[in-house]
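Worked example (supplementary).
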Amino acid sequence: MSGNSMGLLFSVTSFGESHGPGIGCVVDGCPPGLELSEADIQAELDRRKPGTSRHVTQRREPDTVEILSGVYEGKTTGTPIALLIRNTDQRSKDYGNIADTFRPGHADYTYWHKYGIRDPRGGGRSSARETAVRVAAGAIAKKWLREKHGIVIRGHMTQIGSVEIPFQSWEVVNDNPFFAADASKVDELEAYMDSIRKSLDSVGARLRVVAENVPVGWGEPVYDRLDADIAYAMMNINAVKGVEIGAGFGCVTQRGSEHGDELTPQGFASNHAGGVLGGISTGQDIEVSIAIKPTSSIAQPRRSINKAGEAIEMETHGRHDPCVGIRATPIAEAMLALVLIDHALRHRAQCGDVHVDTPRIPGRIG
Amino acid sequence: MSGNSMGLLFSVTSFGESHGPGIGCVVDGCPPGLELSEADIQAELDRRKPGTSRHVTQRREPDTVEILSGVYEGKTTGTPIALLIRNTDQRSKDYGNIADTFRPGHADYTYWHKYGIRDPRGGGRSSARETAVRVAAGAIAKKWLREKHGIVIRGHMTQIGSVEIPFQSWEVVNDNPFFAADASKVDELEAYMDSIRKSLDSVGARLRVVAENVPVGWGEPVYDRLDADIAYAMMNINAVKGVEIGAGFGCVTQRGSEHGDELTPQGFASNHAGGVLGGISTGQDIEVSIAIKPTSSIAQPRRSINKAGEAIEMETHGRHDPCVGIRATPIAEAMLALVLIDHALRHRAQCGDVHVDTPRIPGRIG
Amino acid sequence: MSGNSMGLLFSVTSFGESHGPGIGCVVDGCPPGLELSEADIQAELDRRKPGTSRHVTQRREPDTVEILSGVYEGKTTGTPIALLIRNTDQRSKDYGNIADTFRPGHADYTYWHKYGIRDPRGGGRSSARETAVRVAAGAIAKKWLREKHGIVIRGHMTQIGSVEIPFQSWEVVNDNPFFAADASKVDELEAYMDSIRKSLDSVGARLRVVAENVPVGWGEPVYDRLDADIAYAMMNINAVKGVEIGAGFGCVTQRGSEHGDELTPQGFASNHAGGVLGGISTGQDIEVSIAIKPTSSIAQPRRSINKAGEAIEMETHGRHDPCVGIRATPIAEAMLALVLIDHALRHRAQCGDVHVDTPRIPGRIG
Amino acid sequence: MSGNSMGLLFSVTSFGESHGPGIGCVVDGCPPGLELSEADIQAELDRRKPGTSRHVTQRREPDTVEILSGVYEGKTTGTPIALLIRNTDQRSKDYGNIADTFRPGHADYTYWHKYGIRDPRGGGRSSARETAVRVAAGAIAKKWLREKHGIVIRGHMTQIGSVEIPFQSWEVVNDNPFFAADASKVDELEAYMDSIRKSLDSVGARLRVVAENVPVGWGEPVYDRLDADIAYAMMNINAVKGVEIGAGFGCVTQRGSEHGDELTPQGFASNHAGGVLGGISTGQDIEVSIAIKPTSSIAQPRRSINKAGEAIEMETHGRHDPCVGIRATPIAEAMLALVLIDHALRHRAQCGDVHVDTPRIPGRIG
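After joint prediction of all chains, the assembly is encoded as:
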């Protein structure tokens, strides 16, 4: 376990570099009997894939997934599911310059000092390309959660740079290039992103992910709390710098009389907890919000050093997302799904036969 | 591993309930040869202990720690270090009422549905009392990090409710009951907390933890990123609802030209990354900020339900912190220490013999 | 995880040295609702405890266990169960000699080189005293397996030195100091052990452990096979040098036509597999056999070296079992129970909802 | 972790079925900077591959390995190394019969009851074909151990059915189809195996694996003992029913005065311990012996049942090894290498900076 696996019972072990032969993962622990095809996974991959609008990287990877194992006659068998996505758009070019310098905001400097060797081509292992693997693995988790428990996991952008995007409706999220839940904001976002791109700069973003219909009782009490595992999963996404559950940082100025969600026979009166109390799901929606830093690769001159420790100036040209946050929505959904399925299985292991007479109250009143 | 252990190589396995015989933990993986006594641990415990001012719970627990194993003639032996803190201030009282109802904002409802049984005395396992164990284990981690690597881990409150507390100096943090780094704010905080208490309410808080002198190269690339493990650790603290690394949510409105920390031979030009790039430490200060919700136990009437699912009204009297965030400072320091020592050992395992000629630049210019 | 925990879902984290304040463990993952008292555990500890006959060590430890957490009103709560056994019979004596030399057959030399420091008192962490902890944890596992699945786990000695002990009946096993399943052999064993003791020597032993009523389907397919986890658990017992499942080494000279257990609607026709095929339980009895080396501490002069690397001669006096294998029976039962409960929970997690129409055939014909 | 990963720090996650698209694994935790090419791995795979003599299965798989990640410019980068072996010799045939019945001695019955679904083609996941993956991963481990520590890991058959094979010389082991260390035995073995094959039967086997030059101090004290992890690894090999370390079952009749290896300044006087004391390596050779059951697939009629639970008679035709033990030699070497590298890294993590003045005595006198 050197940092490339996550999940105790539904575990994903990821591999691959941006410009090597391919990327992929082994999903171990998927319950048997789930109907699964490459098309199920491809549908999620296509939501993340580059080249879909002018606001994301123009790299063109078909990102075609192959299931190498663990599925027989269209159903999972309980054995490991290996997924492989071949890399196809590795442009042949000279990486000599990148290989000897450290791009600001990137992992070049830290990888170099940690490993003493690094694959500089497209960022190697630290490339956001690796996140395709999580979306693929997450597609399996999502499907199981939906079919077994009716759980729906969805995300949308709430802010891109200075533009806040209110929530209007889930309906429109997949119909615009910004995963915006308010169609009336799309024109403003288009113009804003165009201006960012023209200024040879990039911006940060914020998004929200919600899981509905999670049963009460999933999670652990002290160290593998459901919200802690979610924070871990989200902060594992490239470029994420902040995570909130429920009220998040808003709780700092709340009073206890406001924050603590009251219970009524008709349901919880509010959801400041974001669906988790004491590390365990309440049955309310799991509410997560994350902050994503602006893309580090920009075409402006920036100061840095080279391997010899000498000062240099560099600008990064190429096919980069001006806001990496945009394509993070399916990734964040996938990460949340991976955490939830793991806790679903953990719950079944220890408490699968617990019966409680107390009625489970609805997540929300009315 | 049912949610009571953390750490891969320096692992802490916690046990105990608020009003049972005691709480404690087993620390496995501490390198041999570290000088360690109960006094080393007690010093940290005393910073967290209740009853030190009128602004925290008046529960009086001496919280005396006993080392049961793993230390011989004043030094760690490399074998597990078991720590035990006996509970002494369990007031004998009737918990019948609490046992049949679910306090809003608490884990009562979720524990009940998860386990079908719960120890209601003082919150049982979900009590913040368990955090004493982390402070104890963290004291060992802190000492090793300091002696082996010169790492200093410190925290201070940055906001209590609506009162922001600027950073002035580390010197004063331990000299006031609020872990405030600005002595001039103490009077205002005293008055503010008195007013909160009088209104029978509670408030949230925000604090910052910093680790200085962390070497470049600690962390993992994809899933057990240093910042992800920090987010996990922090969100595992009772009542934490948000975690930020470096710029945190502030990165949403930053441009790439601002956020990406430039490198110069004299050091990094800024630290928006908070000391972590690509999941691996940069050699800059690790900067973490967390949000802590207001205490859920307040003496105001609140709506809830009982085990039969019927509507009730309850108010929680007793010895509660009006702002649980205050005593969270040593806990957050401990959690950061636990994450760092684990990654120190992981780094040594995989990359302990890596040698790089590139100079390691200082964390900060000037 | 530095070698003091075992089990993925029902995990035992052990601590303690032979002559420190105490030994104990944290059991994490026990399902909630199991009736459990200290008496349940004490009963198993008493089967292992020293001083019960002249054929085992005369050290007198009451080995009284205290439950520190995880049990409320007589039932497990699903939270960690911490167990503590205080050491009481640490004779005050000078360990200076032992501290500077390495006893042949003991872990002194290896601990010293690994850790650079060791607690020499009574073997410190490497003392067989630590096995009391496993018996205590195993008592919980045994009880759950029996109550939930009707599983019965029993062991008996099959050979002590040159004396083979046939299986006659489980009835007599706990009625003689040798855990012999043949009462007619007890006199011979008494005389044999007396002669060994008089010759200032020790002997090896062999024992068999059986788990009945294990359902078909527990185990994992490739790396955490049920039999592999059993082999791991058994070899983790001090002094064990060999492990067999089913036919064991006898399979070397078997033909496929003999070894492969035929299936009939009335049950399996034989059990050469020892209850495990492809790493997964068959529903037949789990059959395990282990070899235990002779006690290393003997009162004869033996060659060794001291810390300076100089040749010395040493004999070990004190209160030692002339055959450590004798008291290993309850330990081996406990280890098997710990493996089985872990796989019971793992099975429930991944395959808890699998339904198969095929009848489960009985373990044995007739 | 559902039973398809092994290793804490150098972990192998395996995937694939006998007749699916391919088999492979992800090796996570390999230290950076190791020179590695597909040829290094292929050399070990070729030792295990089928079709090399008339005494093993005639299935013809080139078993060509592809490195998908983790290697850059001929060196490991510290990131995961994914290996893929495409399946090429899946004969198209009707598996209907096998799909509805359970072959005696195989995992058919247990997989079916565990998962409720199974890939019957060639045994699916339970096929010995999966062991190619371990040989591939083991090749990496072997190379690192050899280059970093000078460790040599070698195995040879010690018995096939009733024919014992004495050790004469390592030189000849790879020059005969039986991995025999005595060339004079080869004719007898040829004749013996021919007779077994003609009788439509199969036989068991026994082999020995040795690791030379392992430093003193690797291993863990209580639960992840080096010998326990070896036993686990070996018992994870298909068809293994017994494991011995050092004297193994021979210790049952030994006296303590014989078994306990004396230490002298010139080295240990014997190696009954098999290179492990108290779970930690002594610096002597690690000595392991395993028993492998006879091939279950034989062309004789055997009793079984079908999915409906009805009695049937079946014989298994096809391309099967008459003694699966023969090709197990490189697999057992690989498994030992995987355990050793994991403990090498674990040792470095916890005790990498321990310095002891005591001289390390040689493994053997003279």
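Two points are worth noting when inspecting this output. Chain C has a mean pLDDT of 93. Chain C has one domain: 5-351.
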